[in-house]
Amino acid sequence: MTALWLAVLALLLATLLCLIPPLLRRAPPAEPAADANLRAFYLAQREQLRRDLKDGSLSASARARAEEELQRDLLQDLELRRPRAAPWAGQRAGLAAACLLSVLIPVAAVLLYGQLGNPRAAAGAAAIPVEPHAGAPDGSGDDMALAINALAQRLRAEPDDADGWYMLARSYETLGRYTDAVAAYQQVLRLVPGQAAVLADLADALLSANQGAPAAASIAAVAQALAAQPDQPKALALAGMMALRRGDAAEAQAYWERLQARLPPDSEAARQIQSNIAQARAMATGSPPARASAAPVAAPAAPAAARISGRARIADALRGQVQPTDTVFILARPQDGPRMPLAILRMQAADLPRDFVLDDSNAMSPDAPLSGAGKLRVEIRVSRSGTAAARPGDLGGALSGIGLPAEGLDLVADTVVR
Prior knowledge:
Order of helices and strands: HHHHHHHHHHHHHEEEEEEEE
Strand content: 5-15%
Structural class: alpha+beta
Largest sheet: 5 strands, antiparallel
Helix content: 40-55%
Number of strands: 8
Shape: elongated
């Protein structure tokens, strides 16, 4: 850190040494052009007097008087034209400019660095990559917040990255910034409208931002999610909770029973929903109900067969275009339907070739597990920028029509993104 600031100080001093001495240097006096013209006029007059004397039209005494008169006029004119205060005024202006630059340049450098630079970098802070699962380990909350803010700044410059907006929304929820999460989910829906899972996530964030109280926006988001996908798990859970909040226990029970039918019988999520159904029944019969939960938020345990495995590598012909620190994403998307990844795995190019496994533990959303998908498209992307969205110059590769389970895949990054 000391070496950095000493280098900055040296650069500032070098800049000032280049700018200030010329301002303080007094310019050599120069004869104004008007003075030279006046002297030329005087010489011409003298020459005319000489010719008049030679022609006999002027006597010697008259010529002497005329020359004295010309010389007196010349001296008076030169005295009137001479700017007595100009040299000191010019020196004062140069001194003032030098003092002003001595203050403004260091101040401007500090302000510009504070606006565009990274003050934490001067203290040795390391860059933190944004992981697909935004969970902050103990003691890393500040670094995670910095990484999330960096992602938000990138998305302001690249607002058409749906995957990035979804990752940002989930990260905001992890930090408890529900209003910001709502805004990020709305950006996802702007790019991929009508996605049931995203609408349910939006409704959940709206409820959290409103202290769990249903409002028009969250009710509408749940309704849109169920219209797009009638059995969307989180939307069914939230719809049941909202119905119970307004006193309609029968409707809440109906939503939760639909959800229960989709859950593995021995899962924790199924047991929680069974408890909610019992509460709704108790409320319908007049017994004092316990507060219902909007679970399941956690995904049910995935069947062992719901996994994709294989080996990821970079084509030999393209290996020379890859840096060891480039980021590698391996992801699974639905073959048909939304472009949102269901599961994603992240590593570095230096790790390849490498075996990989995608399952529900890599899920981007607990309500859209890999185990609930049909045919899949498995992709590999090698990104120098470290972002999941494809950019020109990235490497990519894909396998389509992959069903579950899938083993022994050969996933090769063999195409340059144009």
